[in-house]
Amino acid sequence: MNQLEKDKKPILLSGIQPSGHLALGNYVGAMRNWVNLQQDYLGIFIVVDMHAITVRQNPAELRKQCLSFAAQYLAAGIDPEKNIIFIQSHVHQHAELAWILSCFTYMGELNRMTQFKDKSQRYDDNINAGLYTYPALMAADILLYQTDLVPVGADQKQHLELARDIATRFNNTYSPTFKVPEPFIPKAGARIMSLQDPEKKMSKSDTNENNYISLLDPPDVLKRKIKRAVTDSAHEISPDSLNNSAIRNLINIYSALNDISAAEVANQFAGQQYSSFKGELTDSVVNLLEPFQHRYNEIIGEKGYLSDILDEGARRAHSMASRTMSKVYRKIGFVAPGHP
Fold it and tell me: Is the pTM higher than 0.70?
């Protein structure tokens, strides 16, 4: 496929903050969908390090995580020949457009953002302006590339709706400038929950490592985490297991990895002890992650290869972003460089 054919494909954009550890929930809920959609879309997949600093980061760890997350994108099956992969801070137009869009974002809209409220409670010693205006940067991420489709989970719907509102507001104030993106909501599937607290979503930033399955956990760690996962007072799988959030979560994980329904899993393992089912689940997770980890180790060990992909991704992203910013600057009245 040549460059012209790539650029004619509709654009899909997504990104993940390089904090914590990419978890099985990230793979099932996001990365697997990216891989499935890359035949039909030009995927723009970003390591969003600028978003990460709304919470204090260890600089050396942040740099390491950025490279690790990019390598995990590739290990999951993202093809750099078909997609654009880069680190957010390598394309300066993200920050430039974020400032402009913040001037088209109302405080009332930002006040309604539930993530700001949640993070303000969790990080009450660092309630900074960046945490508050974060949605304007997210809108810039999306609108810079005239994005057609944005995969969203329940916790990001608000931000995409705001990006759509900002784009419409800007277009109505001047003239059509931004494409108004559509959400991509995956087919109904299992939401992967915490292994120790199945009422909460599995989070890559969880401080308790027993709550999540990291994509880089070695087999012995995977076995230990799944073995310790909470269940209930029953001891064996049955159709009624789907009524209990703890064992249902483990059934959902098996269901997602083996592409069968949760009800089919409950019937398949009916009568088996939880310990036996956990063993089968461990095998499924290991079978998924062993080739992923092998490919990851190859990529992260080839610094030049990874650097070349990120540099090329940033170059292509910069070119696309520059076209959008040229239109934006002209519309709002900024003087073009080189003109008195």
Answer: yes
